[in-house]
Automatic annotation (TrEMBL):
Gene3D superfamilies: 3.40.50.2020
Region: Disordered, residue numbers: 1-23
EC number, as in UniProt: 2.4.2.9
Species this chain originates from: Knufia obscura
Matching Pfam families: UPRTase (PF14681)
Entry keywords, A to Z: Glycosyltransferase, Transferase
Protein name as annotated: Uracil phosphoribosyltransferase, synthesizes UMP from uracil
GO molecular function, one term: uracil phosphoribosyltransferase activity
Amino acid sequence: PNGCPSPALGLGPSYRPESEKPTATVSRAVDQSNVHILSQTPQLIALLTMIRDKDTQRADFIFYSNRIIRLLVEEGLNHLPVVPHTVTSPVGKDYTGVKFEGKICGVSIMRAGESMEQGLRECCRSVRIGKILIQRNEETSLPKLFYEKLPADIADRWVLLLDPMLATGGSAIMAVEVLKGKGVPEERILFLNLIASPEGIKNFAEKVPKVRVVTAFVDQGLDEKNYIVPGLGDFGDRFYTF
Ligand code: PRP
Ligand code: URA
């Protein structure tokens, strides 16, 4: 991990005096303007505390991860443009609002990214979903592309790219390159992520600077095996097989 200490904040409702708020480690801030970190609320920190715990069993890991994923999807959708839209209410009055007008699709980086598909479907009912299978080599940490299957008209869509872990950034960068190869401009890709390392964020922003990132937390760093620290271990294993 790099030497910069993680910020600790007193968390809890505003009606509580500072002295009664427990101190928790919150996400680091980052320099990259295209990276949006979820608001570090008491709920988000409590959910992350659950899934980081090595003693949290699989059913709870899935349940609490799903709650964070839902927050990421809802926030991610806020980063898509909207157009004016006025409706008439049942009492005959107009309400001036907005609606989303583009087409979207999800693309999950398998295996772990598939865990985020359900949260996306809960918000976008019949969303099309593409898949990219990229696996990190356990020795070298280098990503390898095995398979991709994407909607035929993906170049006309906004793409919500899904992967809960951004460690070195290699897998996510490779996935973005696949999408760019299909004609999707970086500006129309939104990467949704649970936990990122500062190294991964930097690498990603250097290689694909126009992709927007929405993440729940930027952690301390990487260990010698390129696992995120403190992190939560292997997300795919904990969600699917442990
Ligand atoms: C994990 C994770 C990311 C990648 C992050 O997947 O889900 O895809 O590693 O690491 P990186 O930023 O250094 O590339 P993994 O390859 O372990 O496969 P899995 O999804 O099957 O667990
Ligand atoms: N993949 C994971 O699931 N966890 C890490 O910490 C790094 C890569």
